[in-house]
Amino acid sequence: MQPKAILLWLATALLIVTAAGEYFKPFNVSYDHRALILDGQRRMLISAGIHYPRATPEMWPDLITKSKEGGADVIQTYVFWGGHEPVRQQYNFEGRFDLVKFVKLVGASGLYLHLRIGPYVCAEWNFGGFPVWLRDIPGIVFRTDNEPFKDEMKRFVKKIVDLMREESLFSWQGGPIIMLQIENEYGNIEGSYGQKGKEYIKWAANMAVGLGAGVPWVMCRQTDAPENIIDACNAYYCDGFKPNSNKKPVPWTENWDGWYTSWGGRLPHRPVEDLAFAVARFYQRGGSFQNYYMFFGGTNFGRSSGGPNYITSYDYDAPIDEYGLLSQPKWGHLKDLHAAIKLCEPALVSADSAQYIKLGAMQEAHVYGDVNTSICSAFLANIDEHKTSTVQFLGRSYSLPPWSVSILPDCKNTLFNTAKVGAQTSIKKVDFEAMSSAKGSGPEHLMIKTELPLISESWMTLKEPIGAWGDDNFTVQGLLEHLNVTKDQTDYLWYITRVHVSDEDITFWKENSVTPSLKIDSMRDIVRIFINGELIGSARGKWVNVVQKVELKQGCNDVMLLSQTVGLQNYGAFLEKDGAGFKGQITLTGFKNGDVDLTHSPWTYQIGLKGEFQKLYANDNDESLGWTNLTDDNVPSILSCYKTRFDSPGGKDPVVVDMSSMGKGQAWVNGHHIGRYWTLVAPKDGCQEPCDYRGTYSSNKCQTNCGKPTQIWYHVPRSWLQPSDNLLVVFEETGGNPFEISVKTVSVETVCAHVSEDYYPPVNTRAHVNGKLIAGQRKPVMELQCEDGYTIASIEFASYGTPQGSCQSFSTGNCHAPSSSSILFKACEGRNKCKVEVSNSVFGDPCPRTLKTLAVKATCKSSSPSSPGLSEI
Predict the structure, then answer these.
(1) What's the rounded Cα separation, in Å, for the pair 30 and 41?
(2) What band does 451 get if pLDDT is binned at 50, 70 and 90?
(3) Of the residues 85, 124, 167, 185, which is catalytic?
(4) Rounded CA gap, 629 and 512, in Å?
(5) Can you give the pLDDT at residue 440?
(6) 776 pLDDT exceeds 70?
(7) Which of 528, 552, 638, 822 sees the fewest Cβ atoms within 10 Å?
(8) Nearest by Cα to 360 from 327, 387, 324
(9) What does the DSSP 8-state code read for residue 617?
(10) 835: enclosing H helix or E strand
(11) Selected catalytic residue, list 124, 167, 254, 273
(12) HSE, side-chain direction, 13 A CA sphere, residue 728
């Protein structure tokens, strides 16, 4: 980040933080069977999930602003115990873990906050958010009626509640926090603990309420939540959820708008038509609080990703992507949905329940308010997965596409249908313009251009020792559990033992054509097997059996196992028992006198890698470390460190490092750990492109990226960069070509829209006066918008009539208004955003008595601060 930009950001953040806590007048929060009650008023609330450690503080204001612009009333986040208390009673509330700053930024934006303390969070976060030192408390059993666990849990929960109170962040203090959460999806595993589980959930509820936070507490997926705790739904669909008391409202704490991804897996995608259908159905059938998990997913920086084997990206197919860019049309279509729901809010909060009307075999209406008054809203649903249905409602005819909900804020006019997407589509581009590879020795190695290279033309390397390397290694009899040794301070642990092979064994193998094998009864997540310093095989899996043929020499042989974790278990009962490394026996088979049991042999243990211990990612100027220049003919294949320098790309676009040329390892930029990388390839089959949104969604529906590496781009936040001379350090485990690593930017350079003349976006009718809906001027409108700092440079395609195809392949149809391009060019060129009415009055009527649409494809380019703003025709 440039110095001037840093000063501007700091000044803005200071202003926001100073204002936080003063934005709201103090108000109380309660609830009844229908909704949360804020300052005496029932509210229909829309919440956006953002996890503060999965972004940098410099990103937070923009993420909050985009969530608010997208229609959110509330920001929801977990609290990450392991990040805040990495060492027992030594706390961290700085940088990405500055929870207070994040909450104040939310308050200053005018949004509320739902703080999910847990402190178990799952969240695909390492160890479910628990600090690993918690395992070492004598006698502890997690998440049950166990005194050692309850003592630690209460201490941390109280720490967070007290901190929020001290900073005046609860609603009754003028702060944004309107709701808290204790525990998390405990109902899924409660049966594993028997009666102690039931006692624990009662204790957790009483403990939480007893802390005097002064706002409601929620438990999700907890059908036996005590009377003083709201129980909530987590799922893809929650329109059928009923609380366990008629005194409680219906909250949806996790609407899964995407799904997480594992290394070697396909990328899940949830179509926005289905997502909008689920949300509309939820409010249609009595819901009052809905949170998108996630609205912004972000990045699992460092070693925070859980699993095992969850990838570094936590994009989650969210409306705001991993880098902070809008994912369109998901963000825009949901924005229109939220506007329509907000227009219904007076009717929704005035009615204790809906009037249900059967419209057909698979069609139904829910009416809120009184059809004879101005306060009346209706939802018409067609849950048929295949057929459009025409229904009669209050004397009018309505056409309902399959698997859709129409929203009528005034019980008459359809303002929004979940299956009709009028929001623009954005095509993201990963660019390496003005960038070359590090090698720079010939055209075959150039990425695109040679001028102004962003990666230096030199790499240096340092070979990682195989086996024990430090004075702190130790030897004990028998196998130790991986986490008990490492305390999760590193992914890596060496297990080393020595085996003697007699000449009789050698003769026996030759005479009988026998090859001995190393057998590991049970292993997770990765093991790399070395014999006498040579890598002979690897295995990966979760508690899998390993059999590896080995070649041994006569005399002493060193068996060296590099055990690796790839994120700790984050879900399930008895997490404290789920370790890593090896279970059962380790044996050598095929010997003349029978198998050799190594389980109880003397094993030498070396924690971590030498490069980690020396902090190679930060100690760049220490010449004693032994870095050497890297050339074509000395690229090591395994366990090697590499480093180089690069300049920051110009502009403000998000920055990524392309690691597609590498194998598996970890990377740092300027000392910041950007995460694990791994180029495992997804299966070639199982993807559905294009995907039919109709019908019940699951995580294996609508998957993409078949036959490609699961992740190759790794986010480097701009605030971690300096204009030039940035240090990139890579630790590579399996082999790869660092010369082909590149730094790239992510941008939205193509935006498209396809809007019918019968589409009326809710953004044009957003006012109520004295409880009466003001319809305003209902016009079909197409809107295009580039990301901040970009303007519309050209109109690549425009057609009003019957255009065909989609964004990447539009073509004119039999009906086309010749003025289409000139009108769009005049309205949009040089502007960040523009609106054009989709009607004959603007374009003329190229084909009477035909329903027409406007299809547009535009190119966005980086702009100057003085670029014109909004234009509307």
Answers:
(1) 9
(2) very low
(3) 185
(4) 48
(5) 32
(6) no
(7) 822
(8) 387
(9) T
(10) strand 833-837
(11) 254
(12) 26
CA distance 462 to 485: 26
Give φ, ψ of 34 to 5 degrees.
-100, -35
Active site residue 254: yes
**Domains with residue ranges and CATH for the chain:** 3-21+39-327 (3.20.20.80), 426-464+613-748 (2.60.120), 474-608 (2.60.120.260), 779-873 (2.60.120.740)
Show Cβ contacts of residue 356 under 8 Å, excluding neighbours closer than 6 positions: 364, 365, 366
Q: Which token pair is 324?
A: 């902070």
Q: What is the pTM of this model?
A: 0.93
Token couple for 240: 């059928």
SS3 600: coil
pLDDT confidence bin for 521, thresholds 50/70/90: very high
Contact 31, 37 (CB under 8 A): yes
d(CA 742, CA 667) in angstroms, rounded, equals 13
Q: Which of 152, 153, 187, 122 is nearest to 575 (CA)?
A: 122
- 185 carries an active-site annotation: yes
Upper half-sphere CA count for residue 855 (Cβ side, 13 Å): 18
Q: How confident is the model at residue 8 (pLDDT cuts 50, 70, 90)?
A: very low
Instruction: Check: CB of residue 611 under 8 Å from CB of residue 733.
Output: no
**pLDDT of 606 strictly over 80:** yes
CA 2, CA 5: separation in Å to the nearest integer? 5
Query: For 761-772, how does the pLDDT look when each residue is reduced to its tens digit (9 = 90+)?
Result: 675 444 443 344
Q: What are the C-alpha distances in Å from 300 to residues 27, 315, 667, 697?
A: 36, 10, 13, 26
The kind and range of the H/E element at 693 are none
Q: Where are the beta strands (DSSP E) in 565-704?
A: 581-589, 596-597, 602-607, 628-629, 640-646, 655-658, 664-669, 672-678
Give the C-alpha separation, 734 to 562, whole Å. Answer: 12
